[in-house]
Design brief:
The structure is a homotetramer. The first copy, chain A, is an alpha+beta fold. The first copy, chain A, has one domain: 4-Layer Sandwich (Chorismate synthase, AroC fold). The first copy, chain A, is about 25% helix and about 20% strand. Chain A contains eight helices and 17 strands. Chain A has helices at about 40-50, 110-115, 130-145, 170-175, 185-200, 230-235, 260, 330-350; strands at about 5, 10-15, 20-30, 65, 70, 75, 80-85, 100, 150-160, 160-165, 205-215, 240-245, 280, 285, 290-295, 305-310, 315. In chain A, strands 1-2-3-7-4 form a five-stranded antiparallel β-sheet, covered by helices on one side. In chain A, helix 1 (about 40-50) packs across helix 3 (about 130-145) and helix 1 packs across helix 8. Chain A is globular and about 65 Å long. The model of chain A has no long low-confidence stretch (mean pLDDT about 95). The interface between B and D is medium-sized, with 20 and 20 residues.
Chain lengths: ~350, ~350, ~350, ~350
């Protein structure tokens, strides 16, 4: 049963494989009569695309989005927005050696077993290339949310053991001031150094992204299953390579006592601390929403690895191709896109709470 | 817009407030013609209920489930199973002092703001009492999964800073051999000691639960949004007091290199390590599924706390009533129930992959 | 895969069998902070219940609804409303003769074949008794819609060949002034006479119900699949014994030319005729919504009929028990309930069209 | 809230406007590893396209579908199938006169009122052009169903008052042997004559389509709301210009007695008559499914008509452009496509009835 849609009112359905003709999506439930800035949408896509800096994969994709419907004279009409991003890089020969092979910690084995068939070129449907469609939808969602005051700050919080010691809301300019997308230049430099070292070893490294969202209206989130942070968690865990999610105090809450952890109220309804991460009982409380997402190291190595074929024979997989030593900086726009889609969906869901 | 349902094929809808007439639910999409063991279902509920040991709340609820439909001569008919659990404890006077007050880090404020009205008795709909309905559905799901070989091991992994140093699959007998539900008697004793200390202080403490699931068929999970671990993450994050979720290596993956983290294959398709936690590309790979869930300390303290009223006046909230110093042991059956509902739902979803 | 829920925002899930412990439902997505008139809800149920007049089945059911949740101090809280209607009539011996038999034009055969098991008592889940739960939800929906001005007029339009020659909006008092629920006393008398004749023969007869809805706001309905009349059609066709649905001109449109059929505009946006039945392009246009629903004759006869057993042996089924010669008058509140649920759902769906 | 998706497991989402860049869709939940015949898909589209005979609109569209994803080496992969049909006819000047006008019995008024904006070119999203995407998905569904033996026979049953007096299953060759798609050559000729007469008058005429489906497995349909004929009814009523739907005996059931209407069993479980139309209790019983769909006359006339502008001023609309005097022959592949999508979806839904 299909799982290619996300959202209930603002609903994105994506399609497309890494080396197919095009990837794309349909966004249904788009609020009507709103003007879109297409340059901003494209610039979000550019943040995710390969080849943007020395430390990422040099695969060439211009990643130009084409809108096919749902927009009339620059405005949304309420009809579904269909869009495609053509794949320019369809050199299928690069992947002939993977036709019969299962790459370790990739989805090759599970797709083959589940579907009985798989598009092995560049990971096919399991490729993170699919997330470009999410960035398009997220960029639209973000524009709509900005018009009601919601603001996002998403940045690299950790690479390997190097961590930023702050969970503040940083301006986009600061985040984009270095190729790591870490708002502290000093920490960013250390992270970059680590990635370069790992890359030289033909190895990869994981990291974490923090997302802080300000000005979220009070009341978003639908108990008891569709709690706001539950859906944010699902949104993040659906991104390739994500292994963990925590909201507010997160795993640190384990070691805290209730008397430390409780967020006491100011008389205006704000709280003195924000261990809740902006959400109480699954509903936004007006404080900044803050969560952290853990990414594992990329599975594709520039080293040879032992593996097996479809027939179960042991083989040696060589490391070749154009790959990222660390995807975390490129994942920043994806995390922000999924957060924006989720928040906008709950914003729209909240409209039917009262008659 | 409503959020009281979970699952797509095996679908649970719950209703009911902490101090209303009854809580309950409807399970739709139940596979037909299967025999149910009602004693086992009740025994799962008993694991969650209050008053079961010296360290938990002494609120008296017998928590007897009554099935109203969907079962004929002991077997499921494929029709929806409706059930209720009557609330015996409806002493509403206990809560008169909360009518106008917002308790810190509870959902009082957000429910009032969102809905413009709230059932303040015992937290109303936001009370963890609702999770009893999940345990009923989970117990049914677990019986069905057991008949196809799937087995669960869910236990307390951490209380405060005291952590079990193992992620093994433990037998239920071992887990149930102490009131903490930690399979290591020595560690459990330390945890119990910690909870008693915290309780004496009128304070509370958080913890973590690990769930290990064996024999999950290969192929469960629906790319790209409904990845198996994304839905498991949502399931867990929808449980009261949960602040974090990690699958397999989880947040530890941050500091690992790809060459360490990759799970190399054996020639039979199993893997030599299991950092993936039994899921690759969002699809189960046949290895044990292993995840960890973080619970914050309970927000209700037996200490007085500063707070505010609906009118925004500062007040002093006294600590009274019957409350848990640590909910983590009682949350074990809830985590297992939500895991079972999720796995069964994906098991049924997977049936339509082929014509 | 389950089919026991209806609606997307205002969502009803029902459960329960004809002769089980209770039937009931959960309504999720109920707008918050609205007062309910419980006597009105019960009186709607009374219109549907058996034994209300000489021409309907004399099965005794008091059909008292009990609300379990979602209501606090007489008002909706936004939490799901759970409710049950206990079955008083559980004399299962009445149905022992049907354990092995398939009744013609009932669902006995298809349920047995689909599920491999069936609750044969009184038709089990396939009994029209389930529709009592729809009447409860519909009565709630209707109250909410009334508060925004929407009004319903639902009545018997045809029994056998006797038809009312009008599609007007009639007041409830007129409709309820006779046991047929036909607003023209003369026509109603003829219909009653026909039903009595058919009944004496141990036979049954079909009929049609018309529903006219005034003051529906312009703009309800979601292209392209969830057109307002498409969902109304589904709602009606999901009612037991319904064989046809037509909106506005309906099947008469077949023989009309476009120049006759087109509804020309007045300058205020209303139309001079209403062949569209209040819906254009799937969206309400502010004119009265008007549709007609065809019911087949009841399948249970007071005559003996040839049939077969589960084993495929020919048998003679005797006509016995307490049954309706014509269900159409009792189906009036069901049609109105499903219409109200549908309209309210679209009313709420329309709230997210604009940011 | 969005309504551009149909189906639960085999799920089609469409996008696109009449005169936009392209229309298209995404089909999610496609069973994996099945070979597709692309020529057959295109030939279904050709049956729907304009300009195919003298009696239909002469708008030029080659309607060539391009598949973008979900297919690998000619087989489905289980990933979503994205496809587009470029619009060749984008002469927007044709529609400048409609920018400010509302056409009678079109969706111009309701779209403008609902969304506050509308793409007025050729009806934008409300145009029947959207149904081409349904035909693509239906052609895929039909191929899959054919592989399990299900066969469709869909034909014109009535134009104006001229009706075919048979509800048989006709072979495709017979149906396609004339431009009316009526399997009786004599009746077809009368229908064609009528359409030509109406056309000469600058007028339009309605009609009905019958669909007969053989070899549907017993057991499809999900009580109580998702009855097979309820979903078929919704599918049909979602097609442009449809005003009515009836299953089996349909509106004729009104005048029948139960003793006539009941379908008595043969000892093999088949029935002697088929007033039920192949569905009992909402579940297929193995007999041919037979339903009829009523289409109103096309609203666009080649005559001048009175109408109003957005500002509420009375205007005279001239009849010009390229339009159908009767859409019913071109609607045959649309009806069949929606039927196939519905049946396949229920076929897949039925797979999870048993564990």
């Amino acid at each position: 049963m299909a799982g290619s849609s996300f959202g209930t009112i603002f609903k994105l359905s994506t399609f497309g494989e890494s080396h197919g003709i095009a990837i794309g999506g349909v966004i249904d439930g788009v609020p009507a009569n709103l003007e879109l800035d297409f340059e901003v949408i494209q610039s979000e896509l550019d943040k995710r695309k390969p080849g943007q800096s020395a430390i990422v994969t040099q695969r060439k994709e211009s990643d130009k989005v084409q809108f096919l419907s749902g927009i009339f004279e620059g405005k949304t009409t309420g009809a579904p927005i269909g869009f495609i991003i053509p794949n320019e890089n369809q050199k299928s020969n690069d992947y002939a050696h993977l036709k019969e092979a299962f790459r370790p910690s990739h989805a090759d084995f599970t797709y083959q077993e589940k579907f009985g068939i798989r598009d092995y070129k560049g990971g096919g449907r399991s490729s993170a290339r699919e997330t470009a469609s999410r960035v398009v939808a997220g960029a639209i969602a973000k524009q709509m949310l900005q018009s009601v005051g919601v603001r996002f700050s998403t940045y690299v919080d950790q690479i390997g053991k190097i961590q930023l010691n702050s969970a503040d809301f940083y301006q986009s300019e600061l985040i984009e001031s270095n190729i790591i997308r870490c708002p502290d230049a000093q920490v960013a430099a250390e992270m970059e150094e680590l990635i370069r070292t790992v890359r030289k070893d033909g190895d990869t490294i994981g990291g974490a992204i923090r997302c802080v969202i300000e000005n979220v209206p009070i009341g978003l989130g639908e108990p008891v299953f569709d709690k706001l942070h539950a859906e944010l968690g699902k949104a993040m865990l659906s991104i390739n390579a994500v292994k963990g999610f925590e909201i507010g105090s997160g795993f640190e809450a384990l070691t805290m006592r209730g008397s430390e952890h409780n967020d006491l109220f100011n008389t205006d309804g704000t709280t003195k601390t924000n261990h809740s991460g902006g959400i109480q009982g699954g509903i936004s409380n007006g404080m900044p929403i803050s969560f952290r997402v853990a990414f594992k190291p990329v599975a594709t190595l520039m080293q040879s690895q032992e593996s097996i074929t479809i027939q179960g024979e042991a083989i040696e997989l060589e490391g070749k191709g154009r790959h990222d030593a660390c995807v975390v900086p490129r994942a920043v726009p994806i995390v922000e896109a999924m957060a924006a889609i989720t928040i906008l969906d709950f914003y729209l869901r909240n409209k039917s709470i009262h008659l």
